[in-house]
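W.,

You were right to be curious about this one. When I first looked at the sequence I had no strong expectations either way, so I just let the prediction run and decided to look at it fresh. Below is the sequence, 121 residues in total, followed by the output.
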Amino acid sequence: MYEAISLEQKFSLFSERFQPKVVARMNDYEFKIARAEGDFIWHSHPDTDETFLIIDGEMRIDFRDGSVSLKAGEMFVVPRGVEHKPFAASECRIMLIEPVGTVNTGDQPRGERTAPNGVEL
């Protein structure tokens, strides 16, 4: 059976922040959605780029040498190995596109901000 994926419906299934959920897979990539608010942690992904697509709200991604501000309908690809820290002043809904198994806290030790991997909605 063919069925469209409703991002609105998927977002209605959870409320926690910075805990990405898988909504689809394509080859070796996952499409994850997440709610973000406040500061995340400084981290990088040494082996992969990371795509942020803003579904609703606004987000800033800080880098050690600058930042990029994104609003709904915009996207940005953080190059592999580049240290970054997402920030949203108020709740922002995002989609992340990254290889299967990518840990949300990247190269940082696992801690309270590390989300379980592969959680599907």
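Here's what jumped out at me. The helical segments are 7-11. And, maybe more interesting for your project: The CA atoms of residues 44 and 83 lie 4 Å apart.

Coffee later to discuss?

I.
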